[in-house]
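Quick one: structure tokens for this chain, please?
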Amino acid sequence: MHSNNKYFKKNKIIPIDNFFQDVLYNNSYGYYSKKNPFGLKGDFVTAPSISPLFGEMIAIWIISFWENLNQPKNFNIIELGSGNGALSKKLIKTFKNFSSFNNSYNFYIYEKSKYLRKIQKTNINNTKVKWISNFNNIKKGPLLFIGNEFFDAIPIKQFERKNNSIYENYVYLDKKNNIKTKLIKASLKNTNIINKFKKFKFIEYPKLGLKIINPMIGKINQHGGGILLIDYGYIKQKSLNTLQSVKNHKKNEVFSNLGNADITSLVNFNFLKNYFMEKKLFVENIVSQSFFLKKIGIIERAEILSLKMSFKDKADLYLRLKRLLDSKYMGDLFKVIFAHKSKSKNIVGFK
């Protein structure tokens, strides 16, 4: 059987988001179900692994938000898609330096991939952490959801407008077993959703992503708290196909190496902002990763650490910092959005 056939067992033609959902998350052959994509031996490196300062600054920011909420005795932190566990591990380590906070928080990891859960459990190795597949067991106290490169990995729908009709992008197998795309008239439900957007020729819509985020918004509206997302994306609407694939730290053609390469899309931050506001959450200004980390003091922290370092270690520290902050690397491409239910005007990092 040609390897592409397994994706089309049930249907001849599949919406592009459902197709990539299967490619990435299928329990037996999905990309995230059989491979550790993180680090030098994997396909990409994320900010927590680039510099420990990233996790440390996020930890400080979390504590300051907890203080904004008047230091609740029951404070729930949920990391969304924890990857190799590098961020969670660093957060927990930093929290130990703040005793009253350290006694107040509960830590959860929301992870779909059983394979990655195993890696996380080995790397984090901490009884304070619980793994969850939904949020029903979190019954009291505000919740803070944190996703670093979480939303970009949830497949998106693609729509195109032609002669006042809306079409959705689907995939199918041609006679030679190659995967091809095809536009099919969108369902009435999807047409109604997409018609709300201003004039566009092409638009990406995170239907699966919103399905995952909706229960989080429900919990925040019920118990207070917020959701912090750090991801690469854009603020001004782009009529672009932003699907991209990476294998061994290099660009890969989206339909090749299926199940062995990472597939992501750029996050439409302005859309997310409007969506959160519709759901009655406050949303801070969307800022770049560079702006956010500088505002919470990453440069000052680096300077303090560098005082006790050898020249070699200092050079390494600043090289890693540059990858997080410089516009040629992650600094501007990555954006930060924070939607929340607190009345506080003093949330750091966004002004």
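The mean pLDDT is 94.
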